[in-house]
Amino acid sequence: MFTDKESFKQAYLSKVIEGDGTTVDEATQWDKFVALVALLKEKMSHHRSTNKKSMSQGKQVYYFSMEFLIGKLLHNYLVNFKLEEFIREGLLELNINLDDLLEQEVDPGLGNGGLGRLAACFLDSMAFLGIEGHGNGIRYKYGLFEQKIMGGNQVEVADNWLKNGYPWEMRKPDKAVVIKFKGTVRTELNEGKISFLHENYESVLAVPYDVPIMSYDNPLYINNLRLWSAETICGDLDLACFNRGEYKQSISNKSEVESISYILYPDDSSPAGRELRLKQEYFFVAAGLGSIVRSYKKRNGSGSLHNFSRRVSVHINDTHPVLCIPELMRILMDEEEMGWDEAWNITVNTVSFTNHTIMPEAMEKWSIDLIKSLLPRILQIIEEIDRRFKEDLIARFMDEDEVIRNTQIFKDGYIWMAHLAIIGSSSVNGVAQLHTKILKNEVFKDYYRVFGYKFNNKTNGVNHRRFLLAANPKLSHLITEAIGPYWKEEAGELKKLLVYKDDHSFLEQLAYVKYENKCRFAEVVKHKQGLLIDPQSIFDVQVKRIHAYKRQLLNVLKIMHLYNEAMNDPESLTGSHTFIFGGKAAPNYHYAKIVIKLIHALSQKIEHDPRVNQKLKVVFIENFNVSQGELIYPAADISEQISSASKEASGTGNMKFMMNGALTLGTLDGANVEIKEAVGEDNIFIFGLTAEKVLDYTRNGGYKSWDEYHVNSDIRTCVDQLNCGFFDNMGEEFRVLFDSLMIYNDEFFILKDFHSYLEMHDKLQTLYRNKKEWNRISLVNIATSGRFSSDRTIREYADWIWKIRYRTVNKGINSH
Ligand code: 26V
Q1: pTM over 0.85
Q2: Are 749 and 694 in contact (CB under 8 A)?
Q3: Cβ(670) – ligand 1 distance below 6 Å
Q4: What molecular functions are annotated in GO for this chain (predicted)?
């Protein structure tokens, strides 16, 4: 195994030859990239095997998630191995530029947004903390669509991320699991014992592909992200069919089976109530649990599973994997022959559940009929869970109809997945203090009465080693020079930066780093999209999925207002502004797509108006994803976190911006509330209705958007501009936005918050001219961002939910 530059060069040269039989001079950039990945994978296996004995045989955590947005791995793994420097030099001596190889890697889009990225941050932190924690998900052949913008419209292009292969993964056919769908259940009575026999089912083979997860400076713990791919049982064709001469049938079976892991549902605008989605959910749940039970038996002797919950935690990321509960019951009862009570005890103590949204449309429910035809045995188990739960409930809450009514699993022909999750798990957590409070007091208030002890909060965090250390090398260097390197392991150390908050020279250096990052970002945008942006202007950024509740429309109306003001008084605009948007709209979410169109129309309008185009600019970054984020967060001056209060469960972009020194302009929503606590109210720019007020309006009415329209002429002008030919050649295009505000009474209180938003924006505009003060606030944001590292979040999950030990990291000395 290589240990220095020279041995690396030797090893690398042989790897290139091994790959394609070519020399370095003949190899393509892709071949060279693949060779480097292969070498690192080898190094990981080496560490894994030499250290296997010292690895604990303790509890294993399995994080079940439909989505993992892991981002590119190569650069991070070089940073984590602390190898970047000598590998870069070694490659250079072979005439290879490391950056060209980094470019080759695809960014797997196996997720929609925050939920999927959170799962990836958690994997990193578990590895860092020495927790044997593994991901379990789906290896979608096509990830989230790639977004192209044509004529201001979003066009979706299939994301064929596997077309050249994915060199990090390892196919493990010997670890495949058979999954059974459809069929019938026959009961049999043997010596007074009922057994359930699943018959006439259709089988699908789940084949795992493993991706190694390694974190910073902890090569002992190489964890595993296991992604499942659906295949027919006998390889390429359904041979039985084929032999009977049913050629067409055999091919269609194959594609029906493979469709299960074909594509990620891109919809976070309306729930995908589709059979295929349910198949996906059961598929990865059953495959994951099947392989966990198998490896449990291998580790603990093939005896019983009585101690299962002491050795295994299964965490479910939102309700998508909630079938873990009836599936584990099925395994324990039907395969391990346990009785209901013991199986239930083990299941509840094994499973824990995180809720990620309060949006009612996002709450998963499945038709009973669909579950009955696809998963007949699972339905029986859910029915029995429901029967027993109701029995207990009626005994406890006899006179309280409401509690009994609101806690049903079965309602109006549907199964409510969140309800099953709460009943069948030992812990239910929200992802920020405010969100958890809303879960307890509003969304699940009746469950909170029944199972108060299960509810808890775990505020989200992000991987500061990816989003600060690796994404912002210049800032990282500056920080390390100031306070030493220990912050990389313990983000709380960043607090030490506070001693520099009045240090003029340090603040100047900080500002210069920001400027360089803005230049770097501007270069990329110029190269990729041919757009010119001025790094001297203030970068005001909103990047996230496009959604009505996230209120990109509020941001656009603000820019329209600035434009209108500049028309009346050219002096009103101080400084120059670049407003940066990025984010995907779900393909069938018309409103969100029109918002993208509006951003482009406004961008054009401003660009073609010489009265303002030197001072205002609006850009839309195509195809926002993890890699784009890594470039944008370090370059931002202002972080827009402007969701309608109560609606954003946590947000995690807000944390990534903060740790890179952007100032937050936001509502008191999600984790913004805790960011405010951390930085202090003078160092964050809060506006708008509180969550309480929003919930009060939603419950009791009393808000009329027309009142805001009539009272405020600035609002009136902007709103009318959506509808009056202000944008050239747009016809009725933006009518749907106008209607959302005026006909449907502005569900997300955009007009209500408009005035206070402008005021805060104006305050920031003024502040930006006071460089010293701006830089001081930026520093305070970086210094107080430590608590938003996912290391902190995972420690809390480990202490309170999984009850598992982790390593403590002392300055330079790691110990358990
Ligand atoms: C899904 C849907 C589908 C139906 C229509 C409305 C709607 C709204 C939101 C969603 C997303 C649900 C799950 C999710 O991605 N939640 C996000 O999880 C992040 C990690 O905890 C958190 O930071 C975000 O605030 C939260 O939106």
Answers
A1: yes
A2: yes
A3: yes
A4: glycogen phosphorylase activity; pyridoxal phosphate binding
Do residue 501 and residue 440 come from a single domain? Answer: no
- Whether 347 and 328 have beta carbons less than 8 Å apart is answered as yes
The residue type found at 676 is K
Tell me the C-alpha distance between 66 and 273, whole Å.
15
Q: Is 357 in the pocket of ligand 1 (CB under 6 A)?
A: yes
Ligand 1: centre distance to CA 115 (Å): 7
Domain annotation covers residue 191:
no
Active-site option among 459, 652, 664, 793:
652
Say yes or no: 431 and 474 in one domain: no
Question: 367 and 339 in one domain?
Answer: yes
Give per-10-residue mean pLDDT for the chain (816 aa).
93 91 90 97 85 68 98 96 94 97 98 97 97 97 98 97 98 97 95 93 97 90 96 71 65 87 81 84 98 94 88 98 98 96 98 96 94 98 98 93 94 96 98 98 97 98 98 98 98 98 98 98 95 96 98 98 95 92 96 98 96 96 98 98 98 98 98 98 98 97 98 97 90 95 98 98 97 98 98 98 92 49
Q: Is 268 in the pocket of ligand 1 (CB under 6 A)?
A: yes
Mutate to test the pocket of ligand 1, among 357, 646, 797 (most ligand atoms within 8 A of CB): 357
- Does some domain include residue 439? yes
Between the CA of 356 and the centroid of ligand 1 the distance, in Å, is: 6
DSSP state of 802: I
In a domain, 415, yes or no: yes
Using the mean position of ligand 1's atoms as its centre, give its distance from the Cα of residue 358 in Å: 8
Rounded to a whole number, what is the distance in angstroms from the first to the last CA of the chain? 27
Is residue 480 among the annotated active site residues? no
The domain tally of the chain equals 2
Give the whole-angstrom CA distance, residue 602 versus residue 740: 19
Specify whether 780 is located in the same domain as 681.
yes
Task: Report the SS3 class of residue 316.
Answer: strand
Residue of the nearest CA to atom 12 in ligand 1? 357
**C-alpha 87: how far from its chain's center?**
31
Residues 452 and 479 in one domain: no
- Is any ligand 1 atom within 6 A of the Cβ of residue 270? yes
CA nearest ligand 1 atom 20, residue: 115
Same domain, 426 and 477: no
Read off the CATH number of the domain in which 767 is found.
3.40.50.2000
Annotated catalytic residue 72: no
